[in-house]
Amino acid sequence: MGTVIAHAPDVLPVVIALVAGWLLLGLLRYVRADRGTRASIRQAVRVCFGWMRLARMAGLTVTDKTPGLLGQLTAPKGTTPTPRVLTPKIKVAADQFGVVVRAKCLPKVGLEEFQGAARFLADSWRCTRVSVLPDGPGRVVIRGVRLDPLVTQTEHRPTGRPPTDLSRWELGVDEYAAPVCVSLANVPGVTVAGVPGAGKTSLINRLVCDLAPSRAVQFAVADGKVSAAYEGDYADLRSRLFAFVGDDLDEANALFKRLVALRRTRSSAIRDVLGVKNMWHVGPSEVWPLTVLIIDGAHTYLRDYKGNDPQTKHLAALTADNARLVEDLVKKGRSVGFLVILVSQKVTGDAIPTFIRDVCPVGLSFAQKTAEAAVAALGDDIRNWPDASPVTLQDPAYVGVAVMAMQGRPGFTRIRTPYVPDADAARIAEATTHLAIDPALYLESVPGPPGWAGTAPTDRTVVPLAKRLP
Ligand SMILES: Nc1ncnc2c1ncn2[C@@H]1O[C@H](COP(=O)(O)OP(=O)(O)OP(=O)(O)O)[C@@H](O)[C@H]1O
Question: Between 2-32 and 35-57, two packed helices, what is the crossing angle to 10 degrees?
Fold first, then answer.
């Protein structure tokens, strides 16, 4: 004991310096943070200081009647040490939306007890929403959001740098502000539905802007809502597309035919060229790029025309053929590097044939007017999750909010997708124009398997059949 007291004058300044440094760092972080994060930091401090008391009130403590070693040693002779009340240890972190509390479970205070107390914790911490999830054995993570991430609009500024993982599609954040992404590996088709002005284009803009700096991705767009590439939603991106068609059904048919021909060539050449049966085993590359076909206003090309006059018959024959071709790409294109994204205000069977829609593994829906439209976009199960239904997203505050079925998890998740300003899309497209090359050209220079060896074309070549980009 005497030695400890003797060393105190040396140790104390070190301890004071460490504490002062820690406080200074905290203060610096607070000053530099945005307004939302500052409010969350203050909230995190309140959570830390109030935890012992709150845990007792919320029934998240346990009484340990067996004295610990220290209790036994220090208890006065002939007395029984008083039982100890144990409180789960917590660590608190703050971000823009609220706090993340990691807690250690105790005997009889586990996941279920924390989940049962979630409502109470939300009220005490003044959170709009609190979720409790497992965080490894014996631990839980409590997410409390002060602000509702779903009604907090966000913006995405594309970096212009090639992504490290081409199979990750970052969609946005969920209702607890946790990032949501889907894996595009082995996904042949995605459907995106929602009423006009709900945010579908912004979602696609982000995907294109994030992937555009990579040489291993090529894009073709069929936009049924416009007649030329310089009109409409894809005008800013047109220079990064290797092919574009508008609402002309014959031109669209020619583009789909060309892509199916490429799909066939790829299917027969893949073993010789890549040495695997599935492109995703080696990933997309410049010579074998992931070929993304975006069909916006998909009903324009695929709807079922009914009528006996020659004009309607011609249109019906074209849309039936388009449906057959798109079906080919969705059903057979996965392993050879095709991704078809079908965007439509309505994805009911009359707009997009169910034999295409129902084989797309990823389905997203922005706001919908009716329960039937929600079921068409997300499947019958959405009826069992009324709180997550896109029908509840009709308020303007929910523009940019989509619903998606979670891969490998029951239920649906609501996602706040960020807005991508048109100027950013234009900037990225301009900077990456030189990367737009028809993926068929890599296969064109050789007769085909066996012994196929593709070479990268040096110039951007005009794509036959597709509308020339202005
Ligand atoms: N994620 C978002 N966050 C905030 N606002 C958004 C978001 N996405 C879109 N908006 C706003 O909504 C407007 C319409 O969005 P967008 O063009 O993406 O809708 P859309 O669903 O593609 O409509 P349409 O079916 O008519 O093409 C945008 O101009 C923008 O002002």
Answer: 130
Q: What residues flank ligand 1, with Cβ below 6 Å?
A: 153, 194, 196-202, 233, 345, 399-400, 417-419
Ligand 1 pocket mutation pick from 201, 343, 365, 424 by most atoms within 8 angstroms of CB: 201
Distance between CA atoms of residues 303 and 322, nearest Å:
9
Nearest 5°: CA angle at 439, between 434 and 440? 130
Domain count, the chain: 2
In a 3-state reduction of DSSP, which class is residue 65? Answer: coil
Statement to judge: residues 272 and 417 lie in one domain: yes
Query: What is the Cα–Cα distance from 231 to 225, expressed in whole angstroms?
Result: 9
42 CA → ligand 1 middle, Å: 35
Residue 224 and residue 93 share a domain: no
Annotated ligand binding at 194? The verdict is: yes
The boundaries of the domain holding residue 41 are 32-147
Q: Looking at this predicted complex, what is its ipTM? A: 0.96
Whole-structure pTM value: 0.80
Q: Which amino acid is at 159?
A: T
pLDDT in tens, 342-381: 999 988 888 899 999 988 999 999 999 999 999 999 999 9
Map tokens 């909230």 to a residue: 43
